[in-house]
Amino acid sequence: MLTIGKLAKAAGVNTPTIRYYEEIGLLPAPDRSESGQRVYGADDLERLTFIRRCRDFGFGIDQVRLLAGLSISADKDCKEVGDIARGHLKEVQAKLTELKALERSMQRFVAQGDAVCCGGPGRDCVVFKDLAASS
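The structure assignment produced for this chain is given below.
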């Protein structure tokens, strides 16, 4: 049996995260010791590790909830997992496209700032004037 602190350490999360997951129903309410302390077992560690890994992949809470339900379902098709993963991959790819565009804009912005910077007081910096100007 694990305490909340030991469970957190073993799963690589913090204790408030565990309490939050219990509150929103991603983790079942834990058993309690005679003194009222939460106690967890191997199944809880496995489920929490699964949730953490899903979150590491960037899945949202609702997606994690769906995946967690599918992971214990005997009557759901495994293809649903693939559908969720493919949908998330498309979201990640769209974010990457946006971030690459932002990177190019920032590179131009920094290069322009470097080209016009002549030193002096920060309040007179051309970069601030460019940021404040409407495009």
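Interim note for the steering committee: The chain has one domain: 4-132. The longest helix spans residues 79-116.
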